[in-house]
Amino acid sequence: MIGVSYRNAFRLLTGVFAACCIATASLSAAQAQESTLDKVKARGVLNAGVRSDAPPFGYIDENGHHVGFEVDTVKYIGQKLGVKVNLITVTSATRIPLLQSGQIDLAAAAMNITREREKAIDFSVPHVVVSGKILVKKGSGIQGLDDLKGKKIAFLQGSPSTAMERVKASTGSEIVTLPDTTQAAQAVLQGKVAALIMDSAPLYVLAKNNPGKFEVVGEVWPAAPEGIGMRQNDSEWRDAVNFALIDMWNDGTYKKIYTQYFGVDPDPSFIIYPWQI
Fold it and tell me: pLDDT tens across 131-141, in order?
């Protein structure tokens, strides 16, 4: 009887193991079919999250249209995939939640690649490099972080908590977060905050477009890479985006749109991907 029980138990375990293998294989196959690339091609539309308040990356022109370096970048990606592009406005606070919820397929939204963000999403290869700077009111006398000790400093909602914590630790200042660049810049002008800290490129454009009102000073963090955000664990989609970025670099489109929106040639030391693949 004991021998029979062992045999029956073995048969039962073998059956369970086989069923688990089949279920796992079926689940893996289903997951493989759910790549964002397949979804985008099936619907014929790429839902791209872009900024409306972060020139030169993404902003609204005088005709009410989305324009900018990353806007043109996602249009290029759509062209490479043979699909239309639906531009969806995101902010620094909403870009990751909208990506995770599936409302957008990618976020080309002035986003630094950080370890903190890598816990929530995946990134493309770096497609631009920017440093962190300080926006202050013209004539404030502020030249760097040392001059901000004890003052109120603004960051945009969705900024890396590590950056805010470092600034708070070094200055002892109160840190406030604001929804977008426009509101934050207005807070600087009105004296509600002493400074706004964020990526340098939008700050330079903001100061240029508002002569006599702002200055861009100091350096809060050195040049750091930015990338296009995507949902985690979707290598097929990530490859498709990366290959499009590499093609954009190799065919000269990258330099053309970078120069158009940044007003200078790309940093000669920066290459999107240094190998031919």
Answer: 899 999 999 99
CATH class entry, domain 131-223: alpha beta
Largest CA distance in the chain: 95
| Dihedral pair phi/psi, residue 175, rounded to 5° | -105, 130
Strand bridging mode 128-137 / 195-199: antiparallel
Give the pLDDT confidence of 18-40 residue by residue, as tens digits: 444 444 444 444 444 589 999 99
* 272 pLDDT above the threshold of 90: no
The confidence score (pLDDT) of residue 11 equals 47
Pick the CATH number of 36-130+225-262 from 3.40.120.10, 3.30.450.20, 3.30.390.30, 3.40.190.10: 3.40.190.10
Question: What's the pLDDT at 277?
Answer: 61
Res. 237: pLDDT tops 60: yes
Sign, CA torsion 30/33/35/36: negative
Distance, in Å, from the CA atom of 70 to the CA atom of 53, rounded to the nearest integer, reads 12
The dihedral of CA 66, 128, 113, 247: what is its sign?
positive
- To the nearest 10°, the Cα dihedral for 119, 129, 223, 148? -80
CB within 8 A of 271, min separation 6: which ones? 249
Q: Is the pLDDT of residue 271 over 90?
A: no
Lookup: tokens for 140: 């404030």
Query: Before 56, cis peptide (omega within 30)?
Result: yes
Count the alpha carbons within 13 Å of 50 in the hemisphere toward its beta carbon: 25
Going by C-alpha positions, the residue among 201, 204, 185, 182 that lies closest to residue 193 is: 185
